[in-house]
Amino acid sequence: QVQLVESGGGLVQPGGSLRLSCAASGSIFGINAMGWYRQAPGKQRELVATITSGGSINYADSVKGRFTISRDNAKNTVYLQMNSLKPEDTAVYYCNAEAKKLPWSRWDNYWGQGTQVTVSS
Question: Who's near 44: CB < 8 A, 6+ residues apart?
């Protein structure tokens, strides 16, 4: 079982910053994409940012220029630096990883339990 442990969520003022971290652990041969998704009250879960093991990055239009995703492959950890936060960024943020236990295994998707980010004055 692959486990994802998140940290860094909390309450912040508009215009402030937060840094989210997510570490994957367990029996893992390799990890391809890692990423962050979020879900606001009454809305569907949406993509925030993803990054592959090779460094290819994809951002949602709503966060481009404000958020930065990065990863440390040796630590199986992904980060999300969030700057210039807005009230509409308020949501539960979920970590995601695509991982294989063996070279010939299929890719499986794993999720963290989520961390609350609240942007309010």
Answer: none
b/e 37-58 (16+ beta carbons within 10 angstroms → b): bbeeeeeeeeebbbbeeeeeee
Residues 118, 8: contact at Cβ < 8 Å? no
C-alpha neighbours within 13 Å on the C-beta side of residue 4: 25
CB 34 within 8 A of CB 78: yes
d(CA 3, CA 22): 10
pLDDT band with cut points at 50, 70 and 90 for residue 116: very high
